[in-house]
Structures are given as structure tokens and as C-alpha cells.
Amino acid sequence: MGPLSMAGGKREVLHWLDLLQQVYAANRAWLTELDSAIGDADHGINMDRGFIAVQAELAAHPPADIRSALQAAAATLIRHVGGAAGPLYGTFFLRAAAACAGKPELEAGDVVALFQAGTQGVCERGKAAAGDKTMLDALLPALEAMRQALAEGTGSVEILDRAAAAAEAGMRATIPIQARKGRASYLGPRSIGHQDPGATSAFLMLRAAAEAWRA
Amino acid sequence: MGPLSMAGGKREVLHWLDLLQQVYAANRAWLTELDSAIGDADHGINMDRGFIAVQAELAAHPPADIRSALQAAAATLIRHVGGAAGPLYGTFFLRAAAACAGKPELEAGDVVALFQAGTQGVCERGKAAAGDKTMLDALLPALEAMRQALAEGTGSVEILDRAAAAAEAGMRATIPIQARKGRASYLGPRSIGHQDPGATSAFLMLRAAAEAWRA
Amino acid sequence: MLGSQLEMKKLINDPLDAPAEFLAGLALAHSDLLRVSLDPVYVVRADAPVPGKAGLLSGGGSGHEPMHAGFVGRGMLDAACPGAVFTSPTPDQIQAATRAANGGAGVLHIVKNYTGDILNFEMAAELCQAEGIDVRAVVINDDVAVEDSLYTAGRRGVGATVLAEKICGAAAERGYPLAEIETLCRKVNRRARSVGMALTPCTVPAAGKATFELAEDEIEMGIGIHGEPGRERLPLLPAAELIARMAGMVVADLPFRSGDQVIAMVNGMGGTPLMELYIVYRELHHILEGLGIRIARRLVGNYITSLEMAGCSLTLLQADDELLSLWDDPVLTAGLRWGL
Amino acid sequence: MLGSQLEMKKLINDPLDAPAEFLAGLALAHSDLLRVSLDPVYVVRADAPVPGKAGLLSGGGSGHEPMHAGFVGRGMLDAACPGAVFTSPTPDQIQAATRAANGGAGVLHIVKNYTGDILNFEMAAELCQAEGIDVRAVVINDDVAVEDSLYTAGRRGVGATVLAEKICGAAAERGYPLAEIETLCRKVNRRARSVGMALTPCTVPAAGKATFELAEDEIEMGIGIHGEPGRERLPLLPAAELIARMAGMVVADLPFRSGDQVIAMVNGMGGTPLMELYIVYRELHHILEGLGIRIARRLVGNYITSLEMAGCSLTLLQADDELLSLWDDPVLTAGLRWGL
Ligand SMILES: Nc1ncnc2c1ncn2[C@@H]1O[C@H](COP(=O)(O)OP(=O)(O)O)[C@@H](O)[C@H]1O
Ligand SMILES: Nc1ncnc2c1ncn2[C@@H]1O[C@H](COP(=O)(O)OP(=O)(O)O)[C@@H](O)[C@H]1O
Ligand SMILES: [Mg+2]
Ligand SMILES: [Mg+2]
Ligand SMILES: [Mg+2]
Ligand SMILES: [Mg+2]
To answer: What predicted TM-score, i.e. pTM, was given to this entire model?
Structure first.
């Protein structure tokens, strides 16, 4: 079927959102545990609540296209999550939706554009930078890996696989960092030695994307 | 020195009060522990506070005679102990003091009279009876033993030794009883299986008396 | 306590000094409302004695804050005498406080039904009467967890004490004579019932360790307010089931009936946060509504506590117009205030 | 939660329902003061919107009761929007509450400095402004435990929030225009400093286990209000040493100076009994007295809590005549009341 078979469509995006609900339900306790150590013990609860609501919303109002699916996810996360994660992941999906406007199918380049727009949104909304021990420490390396994979001409699945691998490495690399943004920064040096919950949920998001596109 | 050498005087009474301070200090934790199980965890603290105050009072105002020593102990206990133990032991010493009025020395019969008056006071003040799981379950058998010993013509030390032994048995016999008076009665059947703190402090009081008279 | 080593998780200094240091802090914070005497220990209204007003005095062990010292002030108590933690006050404290509260119209002692409290208040009353002060005493015994029988020291006095102090305080402020306040206090006691439960034990400061142990999935039902174990140990239950059970015990005992209006108190034992107490209140509201009983007035908060114990108690008082009207009168104390 | 099995020692039903059931209970108990909306979740004054009055709104995670919902009422907040436990509210809640609080003179958002709170309030403010509501926001950041540097998200907002809500609420009631209330709120924030400590951790209901572990002889110093660990772990200290240390941190930071008069809050974290809080107040009083600082007004109690955590926080506000006068104005809310 040629290059088009490598592209993802509405089906992949919906599958991804569906997987995210399962992934955050399964990792609710872990994310919350990570957030206990350097935050306020709610990150897993927040993500789980958010994606249960996204599923309910999509089931109640099946979206017409990719853009509306991502847009609905964004609005629902903003409305149901709260905390730092709500506006940040909400903005991620809001910008991702805009990047998919008018696109019935996502070519490899479109997938990268989606994540680029979303990550850019998180940067602007949260004003954090690489190395601040936030979700960006998973998102930024993932984006970098995507760009390289795209430049090498690989397809969406491979791009997302490499992104997930980079996110995982970025996630682990948050462990020795002292937080400079978010709630963990209040701990000062005591934030060192703990993996950032948001970087972990971001890695899970990328791994789920790879799985969705592969299926 | 004949029978008079068997009698106790002011020295014995003061020694007894002095020993009581040491005994309740040493058994403060135990009495409190017993009171935790079926009461409010203060009996050892109460007795300790009371007899520290008695010591201080007697040191500040050396009593002229036996009666004033016991009277001072009574007033001090009433003023410093509170709870059930304060008025009950306070009344014990108040009545004991009255029984010693005008006596410079205590013959064996006087010793029994002292304890009889005191125990009678506790009965009247607290309106409890034998088997209610209170200090009376140590005091009443002790008194009975004293009377018998006196009838047999024994001296004060032996009288008090037998009283202490009877008090100890009475104290242990409170274990299987369901309390019918005092705070432990609120526990209903759950008071069964625990030794009564007040019966325990009463036994300690008698054992200290035996020691004081022996010395 | 040795040097700067503290043996339990409390914001205190020497455990034996805790009650007195509490009172000193209370006096510093509320010098407009009350004065504190430290030898003997008692608390009186800043303007005591109020000439011609019947005096209202209560007392008991410390560890139940804000009761009683936190209820001294206009529209409630004239004086309080706190003993050591969970230990009733001594006659000399009660006597001194009675004198300080007596504005010439006599003093009512509101006494909770515990052997120690009864004995010490009785001795004090004798001493005061010998001085010519008209002293009356009402014994509060509202705890339905304890059967009143020959085989107990009767029922414990718990939450109804707070309601009686508020209502009788209003009556005294209005100028009721002593005998009428005594009658009123007996009426409140007769119409009020309470029950309490504990999620956790508490630690008497001078004892240094918890009064009992509870597994992670157990609660004590039918506790008093002295950190003692309750009547039975139950598995941990959701609020809906727990409060249904507790409300059932209270309602059946009086009994409260459909058509009754009540003053309800949902009381925290000291370590339970407000979020939980209002969740409890919601359950209680719905249960009583289902029985046709209307909550006309309510208190939700920590009023009669057991140190840092987690848990709650429920108190219901069958109200009538007189009681509601007195309830609504102004009160200005550290622990309860409205209308002023 | 499955069936009637509860996994933690709390008086709740389904852990996820706890914040909403709290609000329902609050509304049942205080229908004279406030109304509650459950979708989206917010609380407003019973008489909101008050025409022509600038509206005052605050919000944040649940678990800090009585703040903020318990401060809705005359002389304090017009509306509050509580999120899930320790989770800031969402923009739609804030937007709906802002509308409900807007009497036509605009609404001030009092926001505590946490990334989540800031982001959600910012988004809500944009939405409200797009609707034509004049919305201002003041960010409270009074916690001296956190250094304000490039390397943190700034200082946390803690106890000063309560003082700002009381003082700005009085100003709004007096008819101050929105811009002046905004200025006043910044002034309160600028002149207030706080620090907190924990004796025990707390358990987020939906998480089911404690947020951190502390040995029997350890405390957390420099905590916030979200059950998070503090800046450092210290050995358990007697109140005198502990409060000297905490007061020192607060005083040095502004700095407060000899001759200053302050409004002081000794706040319990939820599980600490009143006895201990007044013992703390006594220490604070003497320490400040020694520094020539006079406590002109005070609050001692549980006002801004972390569920059932044991511990306390201290807040000092450098007062002036305007602040004291506004402080003394009447307030009538579930959590704070005087003069009415
Ligand atoms: N300014 C920021 N920019 C990007 N991510 C952030 C920022 N602040 C916090 N985060 C992320 O949010 C995560 C915490 O999310 P969550 O626990 O849901 O919110 P909250 O901290 O409000 O409780 C952190 O682990 C971090 O990765
Ligand atoms: N009515 C009574 N008569 C005699 N002894 C009693 C009576 N009530 C209680 N006691 C005794 O008092 C003891 C408890 O004393 P204590 O703990 O000091 O007082 P409280 O019960 O007030 O805390 C009980 O163990 C019991 O022996
Ligand atoms: Mg969090
Ligand atoms: Mg006792
Ligand atoms: Mg006692
Ligand atoms: Mg949060």
C-alpha cells in the first residue's frame, strides 16, 4: 500500500486516546507514588481521572475528525484534571489539535508536527526548560529523536518507537536532577534522587502512541 | 523492750509516707499501664503526683504527731490528686488520722483501727462493695486478715505482712471480675481479664506499711 | 522529659506542664474574655463575678479542649476548673473557682458523671456551702454506649455538657435564678443523648504512650472522652454505615420521634479534620430526615475532644422553643461565638 | 473502594467523593451562609452576587478545610472553588464561580503560588475577561521555607491567604473598588510571612497511603499544605525550641522589627488539638515580646490545614491601622465569625 500505509488516521488517534486511559489506570498508583515523594501524591489520580473523562466524552460525542478528537481531549483534560497536569496536558492536546487541522490522515511528518506543537504548548504554558525536572525532560528528547528519525526517512511507528525510547531515557535522567519548576522545586536538594512524575506520564503517553500506531 | 517495741510511732508513719512516695514513683508506669487498659491512663501519674506533694508538704511543715502527719497527707492528696483516687485515698487518710487522734504510739490494735477507719472511709465515699473491681478488693481482704492476725495476738509487723499478702491476693482476684464501679465499669465485659489499678495501688500501700513498720 | 528530648509527637514542653501552658496561652490570646489563676488552677470570665447573676461553673480533666476553659465568657460559663489530663479537678480548685464565679446569686456546678468528678465536686460543694454560697450541681449522663444499671457507675457525661453549658449560660445571662437554671440543665440532660467512636487512640502526655492499640482496619465504638477503649471493637466502616449505626443508637435511646426537632452536634475528637466532620454531618442529616427528625440547629467541629484522638461523636438534643431561643442567644467565648 | 471495605482511617465513603460530600454537608449545615454548585463545583455566598460589590474569589485543592469554602460568607469570600484533594480547581469551575460572584464590579482572584493554581486561574481569567468580567488576580507567596530564586517556582502561598481573605473581604464589604482591593491584597501579601512544620504525614483519600514516612522522633520542617515533605527533617523538639526556630525564620525574613505590631496566626494542620496550639501561641507570644513585637490580633486554631496532618504553621502580618480596622470588621462564615 506504499507510504500511505505508514500514515496514521483517526483510528490511530482514537486508539491512542483509548490506550492512554488504560495506561494511566494501570499506572495510577505508580505515578501517585512518584508524586508522593516530591509532590502532593495526586499525579496518577489526576491523569486517571482525566483520561476516564476523555473516554466518556469521546463515547458521548464521537468526533468527526482527528482535530476534533484531540480538541475534545484537550477541553476535557482542562475541565477535569486541574493541578499542573491539567492545563499542561490540556495545552498539549489543544496545540496538537490545531496542528492536525484539516488533516484526514497523518503522514510521518504530521505526527512529528503534532508532537512538536504539543510540546511547544507545554513549554509556553509552563515556562519550564530542559533540565528543570518536569515532563519536558521526557517530551523534549522525544521530539528531538522524532526529528532525527524523520530526517532519516523512517515511518511513523519507528519515529514513535524512537521517541518513546528517548522519553524513557529522559524520564530516568530526571532522577539526579534538582527540580526547578513545579511543586518538587519547593523541596530544594531533597528533590534529587526521585524520578519526576510528569516526565513519567509523558513517557507513558509516547509509548502508548507507538503502540497505537503499530496496531 | 516488751510489747511496746512492737508498736509503731510517728517514725513508722513518716517512714511509711516516705516509702509511698518512692513506691508510687517506681510503679508509676505500671499503674498507668493498668489504667490504660480499663481506664484513662492516669492512675500512676495521679498517685505519684500526690505523694510527691505529700513529701513536700511534710518537709515544709513537719507534723507534730501521727494524727497531723496523716491529716496533712489527706489534705494534700485531696488538693493535688483529683480523679477518683484523690478523694478516695484522701478520705482514707482523713479517717485514718481521726482514728489516731491523741495517740503518740500505735499498738497493734491501733494499727488495725487506722486501716479499718481508712477503709471504712473509702467505702462510704465511693459507695462500692467487695467484688466491684476497685481498691476495696485489696483493702477489704487486707482488713479481714489484719483482724484475724490481731485476734491471734500477733504484732504490727506480722499483721501488716498478712494484710499485704491478702491485699495482693485480692488485687489478683480483680482480674477475672467485671467492673461495677468507676471508669472501668463503662467497658462492661471488656473490663474482664485486667487487674484493677486502684487495687494495685492499695496493695502497694499495704506492702509499704509492712516495710515501714519492719524497719 | 530530659533536656530537650521529647518522647511523643506533640507540640508541648514538659508533659506535666501542658495543661497549665495551654491555659496561659489561652489567657494571653483572650485577655478580653477571661482570666486564668494558676494556683489553684481555674479560669473565670474577665468580668467575673457578675453581680446578681447566677454563676455557671464546669470542670473536669484537661485534654477535652476547647471544653471547658474555651467556653468561659459571656453567654456561657463563668468559670472552669481543668484538672490534669483526663483527671478531674480537686476540691480546692473547684472551691476557688466557685467563689470567683459567685456574683451573690449562687453557682451551678455542671458535672459530668465520672466517679472522680462526682467525688471532687461533692467535696467542693460541701466546702462552698459551708461558706454560705448557694451551690447546686447537675450531673450530665448522656452517653448511650453505657447502660445505666446497678452494674455500672451509670452513664458517662459527654457531648450534652457542651449544649447544657451554652443553653444554661444564655439563661443565666438573661437573669434566670439559680433554681431555674438547675431545672433547665436537668431538662437539657434528660432530652440529650450521645455516642462516640474512635479511629485512633490518643496519648496522655505524662504517660507517653497510646491508651490502647487499634489495627489499621479496626475502630472503637462507644468510647468516652478519656482515651479509654470503647464498648466494642468493630471493623472500619464507610461513613454512611458508621453514622447510620451511631445515629440509630442515639435515636432509639430517648427515643427521638418523627416530628421532633433537634439541636445536633457532630463533634470531632481532636484529630479529625473538618472535611470528615461535614461528611458525617451530611450522613446524619439524611438519616434523621428519613426518620422525620429535623435538625433545627447544629454544631460541627471540635468541641469536646480527647487530645489528638481521631474519631467523632454525635449528640442530639430534643429541642423546644425555649431551648432554641436560648441556643440562639449571643455567646462570646474562645471556643464558641455568635451574635456578638 | 469495594463494597463496605474502607482502606484508611477516615470518616468518609468513596475517597473520590469526599470533597463533594464535604461541600454537601457544609451546604446543609450553613444554608443561611452559602450555596453549593456540584457541576461544576463551587461555593457562593447565599446572597451572591451582591450588586455593586467587588467580588472576592479564592480556590485551590480540597483538603485545607475550612479554607476556602468555610470562608465564604459576609465579610470574607463571595465564592470558592475547591478542586480534588490537593489539586487546583479547573478553569471551568473558576469561571462559573467568578460569574456567580460578580455583582458587576469585577472579581478578585486570590491565588496561592503553585504552578497548577496559577495555570488554571490564568486560563479562567482569560475566559472571564473574554466575557467582559473585570478579573484581577493576586498571587500569595508567603512561605519563608522556600527560597524565591530562579531555581524554584517561587515561594508557596500558605497562611497569608487566610488573612488576605479576611481583610480584603472586609474591604469589599465596605465598598472598596476592585483596584483598591487588589492593591490591599498585594499589601497583605507583601507584609506577611509564614512557616509550617509537620509531626505526622497525611493520607490523600484517593491515594490511600501516607504521603511520607516519619520516624517516631522526627519532624518535617518547612512543609507546605499539600502533605509534601518539608525542606528538612529534624529531631522532635520541645515546643519552646521548635517555635523559637520557626518564629526566627519568619521574623528574620521580612524582617519584622521591634515596635512592629502584628496579626498572628497559629494554625493547626488538621490533626493537632487546641491544647497544643495554645501552648504554641504562648511560646510565640513570649518570643515576639522579647523582640519588641506586639501581637495586636490573633487567630489560634485550624484554618488552613492538610487533611489530618499533625503539626502547625505560624503566620505573622505586619499590621497598620487600616489592616487592623479591616480585621476587626464583622465576618460571618462557617470557619470564622465575629461581630455578627
Ligand atoms: N512549569 C511546568 N512545566 C512543565 N511541567 C511541569 C511544570 N510544573 C510541573 N510540571 C509537571 O507536572 C507534574 C505534576 O503534575 P500534578 O501532580 O498532576 O500537578 P500538581 O503539581 O499541581 O499536583 C510534575 O511532575 C512536572 O512534571
Ligand atoms: N467508687 C469507687 N470506690 C472505690 N474505688 C474506686 C471507685 N471508683 C474507682 N475506684 C478506684 O479508683 C481507681 C482509678 O483511679 P484513678 O485512675 O486515679 O481515677 P480516675 O478513674 O478518675 O481516672 C480504680 O482502679 C478503682 O480501684
Ligand atoms: Mg501532584
Ligand atoms: Mg484513671
Ligand atoms: Mg482520670
Ligand atoms: Mg496537586
So the answer is: 0.94
